[in-house]
């Protein structure tokens, strides 16, 4: 499975608490908006669809997920407030993503991450109305009014 994520640290470098705070301080608004209801959002990227080209801030690069990068994913997810500990994030990754490596085109997210949803759309993902994977509930009908409102403002 190949997930793309933005990283600002060198290979084999751990993201310290200080780096995590600095990374979050570079973002002018919180990455998660917990002021809106949490609803599951399921997305898919069809094979062969080219991702839109957009630039990252200076010092950031894209990297494809490769086996062994689970800990880095966990550090990134913890740094943005998705999990309280790296261990929780790492366990979640092992249970909910690694068993489904062949389902490369599916993505689970939530309304709190509407900013990321905007990036996923630019990367060629589409929000699914009915489909799901890995047992996630698809809250399309409940989620879309919040996503549309937030992305319009964005």
From TrEMBL:
Protein name as catalogued: Uncharacterized protein
Species of provenance: Brevibacillus reuszeri
